[in-house]
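Z., the sequence and structure:
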Amino acid sequence: MVFNENASFWAKSARDFDKQTSQDRSALVDRVCSDIGQVDRVLDVGAGTGVVSRALARQVSQVDAVDLEPEMIAVARQNAVVSGLRNITFHTRSAYELCFSPRTFDAVVILNSLHVMKTPEVALREVHRVIKPSGLLVVPTYCHAETEENLKHYQQWASKSGHRSFHVFTCGDLCALITRCGFEVKEKDVVEIRYEQQARGMILGYVVASPVFRQ
């Protein structure tokens, strides 16, 4: 949702994306909001239809929502208007080239996007540039390779849906990537996300990290 290699998949999915209901996803969004708390400015990378952006906008001063897919941003903007939220600014652009000054954000969220980026390290280094030294990075990401059974389940679903992941992480892989890009992992967890329309869930790595700035 933050670059154009999967553009056609996300463009087709935009209008129906929020029809996938899930108590697990709602709990995940609540967890993200709880971890971030009541800060000033938050960046939502790979914002999609704005589910996390809208939740955060109710507790922080300003949210900047970034996604490269125009259809996703159009739906996200419409959803914000319907919700009466005016403190979200939407940006149609790549996570590889963020349009913000260094050390701008108190927190950054990248929800389920790193695995569909061809070069996620580029996005993470851009995030490192724009996050404050005291900032928090929250990176819940599907970890399809966490178990063989989960990987097989994802591959079967992807072959039917047309979805493409450039990386099939384990939670350990995800943490190693985040560390290489200048962050210190503070919390990691493995959870299952199940949608009501699906018989089985997918495994997600929930990682919280802080930036490291070397002298």
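The longest strand covers residues 183-193. The first helix runs from residue 7 to 13.

Let me know what you think.
H.
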